[in-house]
Amino acid sequence: MSTNNDNEFDFSDLTPIAISGIKVPYDKPDGTVGVKDYIMREATEGVVIQYESSSARQIKFKDGKPSALQGTGEAGIVLLTGCLFEIYQHKGETKERPVILEEVRGWLHRITEPLIEKAKQISRIGVKDTPESLRKQINVLQNKLKTLTKGGPANDGEDEEDKDEEDTEAKNSSGAMTGRSA
């Protein structure tokens, strides 16, 4: 019996992506315009399934073949409501609550379109690896590694021998994370 020790399925250090500082205007009851703060979080598998199901429902078939798309915007809104959370204060504490479909439908397209694209990007929906995209990922990871091994913010006082081992492991590793294809 052989074992695979390359750890391509070790996700213990995977940090979910989150983007804070998203601000969206809204109409206050007194007629003035306010701003709400939001945070976008990487989609869970459940949200991705809802998004893909919504996308599939939009495909119309004729004679067993795809013939048209209807209501193509709904899938993006479904994704956005699964990734976007309003930041609010309650009794001095900062809390989060998911946005609801009706709220997002009331936003301007100029707001929803870039947010939907960013949600797809951080959740790796529809991303297909290409040689160029993999090179970019490798460069980003190598730069992070250089920062860490040169006394960067996350350096925990490793000695040079540990750094050399990590460099060798990074060069020899072929277990790069890949995205979901749509």
Task: Walk me through the structure.
With 182 residues, the chain is of the alpha+beta class. The chain has two domains: 1-125, rbstp2171 (2-Layer Sandwich), CATH 3.30.2220; 129-182, no CATH class. The chain has six helices and six strands; from the N terminus they run E-E-H-E-E-H-E-E-H-H-H-H. The chain has helices at 45-57, 73-83, 101-105, 109-123, 131-149, 160-172; strands spanning 18-27, 33-41, 59-62, 65-69, 84-90, 93-98. A four-stranded antiparallel β-sheet has the order 1-2-5-6. A two-stranded antiparallel sheet has the order 3-4. A hairpin with a 2-residue loop joins strand 3 (59-62) and strand 4 (65-69). It is flat, with a radius of gyration of 21 Å.
